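*** Residues and shapes ***
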Amino acid sequence: MLRYLPFLLVLALWIYAFIDCLNTPEEEVRGLPKVVWVIIILLFGEVLVGPIAWLVAGRNRRGPAGGSTPSEWHRNHRTQYVAPDDNPEFLNSLKAEHRKDEALLKDWEADLRRREEELRRRERGEESEG
C-alpha cells in the first residue's frame, strides 16, 4: 500500500490544480490564458510540472477582502448567545404559535360538536321512523 502513496499524492495534486484552474475567474489568472493553463496542467501533470507551475505562477493569490483574515474577524466579533427563555424573539414566536394552535383547536372542537349534533339528529330520525 505504501508504494502507491506517491502515485496517489501526484494524482491528488493534479486533480486539485485542474479543478482550481477551472474554478478560477479569468481575471485572476496570471501569465497565460486560462485555456493554456488547463492544457499545461493536463499535459505535464504526471511529472508535477503543470500543477506546481499553476499553483506558483498561474493564479493571482490575493489577501482577503477588507484586509483581515476570517479568524481576525471572529476574534473581534463575538456572538452573544441568549438562552431561549431570555430571548424576546423566541418568546414572541412561541406566543404566536400558541395563538395559532388555540385557533386550530377551537375550529376542531366546533367541527366535532357539529358532527356530534348531526349524528344525534340522525339517530333521533331513525328512532322516530323505526
Notes: The CA atoms of residues 41 and 50 lie 4 Å apart. The mean pLDDT is 84.
